[in-house]
Design goal:
The chain is mainly alpha-helical. 71% of the residues lie in helices and 0% in strands. The longest helix is centred in the N-terminal third of the chain and has 22 residues.
């Protein structure tokens, strides 16, 4: 079940990406009808990547990506910013200059996409050698690590023992960010039962709160995009106390602007 859900997520991403390559800026989304509602934001993520790549290559700017976001992407903001991170990674674009124009809470998502893409396309350096991109300031590494952590769940496909072995390859000070990303991925993918949830709870150890924060972040993005998932809700019910109140407080936090990612994460950490 989990592997099938991962396959659907990956095909949804590709559908969005291909639509961007085919149409560029569009007035409607033909992929809406072919993708399960719970994964529609993934298609927006893929479209975001595709339109960002086109905009950078053809116009040397993010003009078209910004138009797409303003006209179509607000509801799926988390995934759309992740898609931008994918594009910047694929094109090896300098990331700091672009991040200066983005609020800290979305910087985290751009870096998440950048980290996920790096883990996918540069697995040797990113996962096996645990390398961090050169010139990525320490205050931005939390988002990169989050994306790497998110990728790990897709790589191990539910093999929690393998997941634990991979995490141990990384320096201890990266583990909390990795587990936050894993929490996002586990919840977004869904498809696990109580046994796996208990195993994850045990495996996270001292980073359990960061794992729970990832769960909350995934639920928040689904709530905003109106793409709630029964499978994800089962996971959230297992790990989160008073989820409705947590989501309300998270919305209040995200209504604010933050100076940097660290300040944003401090605010989120106070929820769990």
């Amino acid at each position: 079940m989990l592997e099938k859900r991962i396959d659907i997520i990956q095909s949804s991403f590709q559908a969005g990406k291909l639509e961007a390559e085919r149409l560029g800026l569009i007035s409607n989304f033909e992929f809406d009808q072919s993708i399960p509602k719970e994964f529609i934001s993934v298609a927006f993520e893929g479209f975001s990547m595709g339109i960002a790549v086109k905009s950078i290559i053809e116009k040397q700017s993010l003009k078209d990506w910004r138009l797409f976001f303003e006209n179509h992407g607000l509801k799926h903001a988390s995934q759309v910013y992740v898609g931008l991170g994918w594009a910047l990674c694929q094109l090896n674009q300098p990331i700091e200059k672009i991040l200066k124009t983005i609020d800290a809470k979305w910087k985290l998502r751009v870096l998440d996409g950048y980290g996920y893409c790096s883990a996918l396309l540069k697995r040797q350096s990113t996962i096996r050698n645990q390398e961090i991109p050169e010139n990525l300031p320490r205050q931005l590494q939390a988002g990169f690590n989050q994306g790497v952590g998110r990728s790990l769940w897709y790589i191990v496909k539910g093999d929690i023992e393998r997941l634990k072995r991979i995490i141990e390859l990384f320096e201890n000070d990266r583990h909390s960010d990795l587990w936050r990303g894993i929490g996002i991925a586990v919840t977004f993918v869904g498809g696990i039962g109580s046994l796996e949830m208990i195993q994850l709870q045990t495996a996270a150890k001292n980073d359990l709160n960061q794992f729970k924060l990832g769960i909350l972040m995934a639920q928040s993005s689904r709530n905003k995009s109106e793409s709630m998932s029964e499978s994800a809700q089962i996971i959230a019910d297992f790990f989160l106390m008073n989820e409705e109140e947590l989501l309300k407080k998270m919305n209040e936090i995200e209504a604010n602007e933050f100076a940097d990612i660290s300040e944003y994460l401090v605010a989120l950490n106070q929820l769990i």
